[in-house]
């Protein structure tokens, strides 16, 4: 593949070149569905960043590490119950093949610590991440322990596989990488950046079906705009997310020495 012009995507079948380090954020994804990647991350901002080497992607098909003639990756759970469990030996062999890849070892799982903006920022500061996507009922507990995988959850719901969770998590990280978003300001004022949800946004037309734009926003008075946005962000956060609001108030009190 032409390293300069092609997207920085590698399938496991292609050898990882020794000078494979692009300097960008290196995502390594272990999955039973490598075709799902880069998927939506091949388009728009993330896609441009992939093409220009801001980040790179290596996917491994976990099935390639199955040893029996049926290439089985899963089996029935000991103790009974429904569904199938991914075999520890197969997943471990896949992880052994990416020991040289940088970053924390993550397993997307509803039991994990909830992914949030702080974790996205921390991951963006890493050289990359190795991401294991589960299927069926999930991974055998022993490979999670043996490989010290960090379980990361997207939220309190159950997906049919880790892939959409991995894509969402990677999206949150990639847009924080230097050079992906244009204005750094855009990032600074977003939801969660100051522990608040975002204030309401308006654009043209000024009057849309009788709904007008708040006057302060068209006043040209920057300090007033800023104060209005802060008040709105606080109101929205207080109303919608008491958990975030309580934390914000605590931090504010602390900062003000109360
Ligand atoms: N039996 C599991 C659910 C398995 S869902 C349980 O009850 O906890 C199959 C796979 O989808 C999981 O292995 C995981 O990789 C992925 N997955 C499902 N929900 C997820 C979530 N909320 N966050 C991250 N990954 C999730």
Automatic annotation (TrEMBL):
EC number: 2.1.1.228
Protein origin, superkingdom: Bacteria
Sample GO molecular function, one term: tRNA (guanine(37)-N1)-methyltransferase activity
Residue runs in coiled coils: none
GO cellular component annotations of the record: cytosol
Keywords in alphabetical order: Cytoplasm, Methyltransferase, S-adenosyl-L-methionine, Transferase, tRNA processing
Catalytic activity: guanosine(37) in tRNA + S-adenosyl-L-methionine = N(1)-methylguanosine(37) in tRNA + S-adenosyl-L-homocysteine + H(+)
One BP annotation, GO: tRNA N1-guanine methylation
UniProt-annotated stretches for the region Disordered: 1-21
Family designation: Belongs to the RNA methyltransferase TrmD family.
Purpose of the protein: Specifically methylates guanosine-37 in various tRNAs.
Protein name: tRNA (guanine-N(1)-)-methyltransferase
Biological source species: Thalassobaculum litoreum DSM 18839
């Amino acid at each position: 593949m032409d390293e300069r012009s092609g997207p920085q995507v590698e399938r496991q079948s292609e050898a990882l070149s020794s000078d494979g380090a692009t300097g960008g954020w290196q995502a390594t994804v272990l999955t039973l569905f490598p075709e799902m990647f880069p998927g939506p991350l091949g388009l728009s901002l993330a896609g441009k960043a992939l093409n220009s080497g801001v980040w790179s992607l290596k996917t491994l098909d976990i099935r390639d590490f199955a040893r029996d003639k049926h290439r089985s990756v899963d089996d029935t759970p000991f103790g009974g119950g429904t569904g199938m469990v991914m075999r520890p030996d197969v997943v471990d062999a896949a992880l052994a093949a990416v020991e040289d890849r940088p970053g924390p070892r993550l397993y997307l799982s509803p039991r994990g610590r909830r992914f949030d903006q702080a974790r996205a920022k921390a991951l963006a500061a890493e050289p990359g991440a190795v991401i294991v996507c589960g299927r069926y009922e999930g991974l055998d507990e022993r490979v999670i322990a043996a490989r010290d995988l960090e379980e990361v959850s997207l939220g309190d719901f159950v997906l049919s596989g880790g892939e959409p969770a991995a894509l969402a998590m990677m999206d949150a990280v990639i847009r924080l990488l230097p050079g992906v978003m244009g204005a750094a300001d855009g990032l600074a004022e977003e939801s969660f950046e100051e522990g608040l949800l975002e204030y309401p946004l308006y654009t043209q037309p000024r009057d849309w079906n009788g709904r007008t734009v708040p006057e302060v926003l068209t006043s040209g008075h920057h300090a007033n705009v800023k104060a209005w946005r802060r008040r709105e962000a606080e109101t929205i956060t207080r109303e919608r997310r008491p958990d975030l609001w309580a934390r914000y108030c605590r931090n504010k009190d602390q900062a003000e020495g109360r």
